[in-house]
């Protein structure tokens, strides 16, 4: 049944994009600049297709009383996607966007059975969870800079979440929607997902992590996204240490510096997707212990790539400043 839902979601998203792309070309055309990884004007906002697939599946789930783990999360996160679409069109102030992210994170925490079990002093942990949820949202958004990267990786991460949480309709439909979108987004991309898609995926993944049956299970699912979250987190830390504004657009992530070193979009995206697939397999077969080990190995591999293959961070920073 899950495979059928994925196929229906993929076909629906593909058809939606067939109709949407001409409209996006007229109103949301992304022009290349010095910080871009693409050289041709490309429409953005295509993430709206898989967002609508997930929301429709969530409405169907609610209508039939299928309210299992994560079933209604697409509806919870949908307002954030709408703000992302407005941001793609009008470039909203950062304060407005983060305010909606905080509100969404509050809703995700309110929906979490793990948070409901916190008592006494453990309630002090809530601000940390709130900030962490918005961090995941922004980190996934930051990583949306190469053809197929975030769509492919999040299809893997959401598949792992659906299997771990025994989710049914809405999450599998979203996986299918990402597959349908990926057909258009793989290199050379004919459409980008935009903030409407990347912030939706980041917040939804954070919500699914909070739907896990226990905190160890929650951590294990979060670690499946190590390639994306690790790259984004380490880049933010390096930028803070270097006195750089973390929300200013740049080309300093590892994936961007690998591209600057001559790697193609497809090669980099495939590397990240395979890395996440290995982590997802480790989660299914061995749980937290196995995921910890594989995540550590991948972090060490990332450090090696950073030092020996990618354009050095200081050199890329100097080029950006220049």
Summarize the model shown.
With 322 residues, this protein is an all-alpha fold. It has 14 helices and two strands; from the N terminus they run αββααααααααααααα.
Please provide a written account of the structure:
Helix 1 (2-27) crosses helix 2 (48-63), helix 6 (126-142) packs across helix 11 (226-241) and helix 10 crosses helix 13. The longest helix has 44 residues, at 265-308. By secondary structure, the chain is mainly alpha-helical. A two-stranded antiparallel ribbon has the order 1-2. The chain has 14 helices and 2 strands; from the N terminus they run αββααααααααααααα. The model has no long low-confidence stretch (mean pLDDT 93).
Please describe the topology of this protein.
Layout: H1 2-27, E1 29-30, E2 42-43, H2 48-63, H3 73-90, H4 94-110, H5 113-116, H6 126-142, H7 149-165, H8 169-185, H9 194-209, H10 215-223, H11 226-241, H12 254-260, H13 265-308, H14 313-321
Antiparallel strand pairs: 1-2
Helix pairs in contact: 1-2, 1-8, 2-3, 2-8, 3-4, 3-9, 4-6, 6-9, 6-11, 7-8, 7-9, 7-13, 9-10, 10-13, 11-13, 12-13
């Amino acid at each position: 049944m899950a495979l059928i839902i994925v196929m229906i979601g993929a076909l629906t998203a593909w058809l939606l994009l067939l109709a949407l792309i001409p409209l996006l070309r007229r109103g949301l055309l992304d022009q290349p600049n010095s910080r871009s990884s693409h050289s041709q004007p490309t429409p953005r906002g295509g993430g709206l297709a898989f967002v609508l697939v997930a929301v429709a599946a969530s409405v169907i789930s609610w209508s039939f009383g299928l309210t299992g783990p994560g079933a209604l999360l697409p509806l919870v996160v949908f307002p954030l996607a709408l703000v992302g679409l407005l941001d793609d069109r009008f470039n909203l102030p950062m304060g407005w966007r983060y305010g909606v992210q905080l509100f969404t994170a509050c809703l995700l925490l309110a929906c979490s059975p793990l948070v409901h079990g916190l008592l006494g002093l453990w309630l002090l942990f809530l601000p940390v969870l709130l900030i962490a949820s918005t961090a995941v949202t922004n980190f996934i958004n930051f990583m949306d800079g190469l053809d197929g990267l975030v769509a492919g990786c999040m299809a893997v991460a959401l598949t792992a979440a659906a299997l771990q949480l025994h989710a049914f309709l809405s999450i599998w439909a979203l996986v299918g929607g990402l597959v349908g979108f990926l057909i258009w987004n793989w290199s050379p991309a004919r459409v980008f997902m935009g903030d409407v898609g990347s912030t939706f995926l980041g917040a939804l993944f954070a919500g699914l992590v909070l739907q896990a049956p226990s905190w160890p299970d929650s951590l294990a699912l979060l670690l499946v996204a190590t390639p994306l979250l690790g790259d984004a987190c380490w880049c933010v830390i390096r930028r803070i240490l270097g006195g750089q504004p973390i929300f200013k657009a740049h080309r300093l992530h590892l994936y961007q510096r690998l591209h600057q070193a001559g790697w193609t979009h497809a090669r980099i995206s495939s590397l990240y997707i395979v890395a996440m697939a290995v982590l997802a397999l480790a989660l299914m077969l061995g749980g937290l212990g196995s995921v910890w080990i594989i995540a550590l190995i991948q972090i060490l591999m990332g450090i090696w790539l950073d030092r020996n293959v990618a354009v050095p961070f200081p050199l890329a920073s100097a080029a950006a400043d220049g």
